[in-house]
Amino acid sequence: MAADEKTQAKTEQAKGKVKEVAGRAVGNERLTAEGRADQAKGDARQAKEKAKDAFKH
After folding, report:
1. Which of 4, 20, 21, 44 has its CB surrounded by the most CB atoms within 10 Å?
2. Terminal alpha carbon distance of the chain
């Protein structure tokens, strides 16, 4: 299950980066903000998984 969470975190980060870059390219501030939000969700999920891993060892 942890591998799924880590993969999902990386996917959210990548999706967010694509949205952010696309939003900047077309001048769409909302899309840029959504991209940043997706990246933040991915970062939070990744941090949670790293904390869980730290307590396992």
Report:
1. 20
2. 17
Alpha-carbon torsion (3, 47, 33, 19), positive or negative: negative
pLDDT tens, position by position, 3-54: 888 899 999 999 999 999 999 999 999 999 999 999 999 999 999 989 988 8
Q: How far is CA 57 from CA 2, 5, 48, in A?
A: 14, 18, 15
- Where do the H-state alpha helices sit in the chain? 2-26, 29-56
Q: Is 0.70 surpassed by the pTM of this model?
A: yes
Entry field: residues in the chain: 57
Longest dimension (CA), the chain: 46
CA dihedral (16, 21, 22, 28) in degrees, to 10, reads: 100
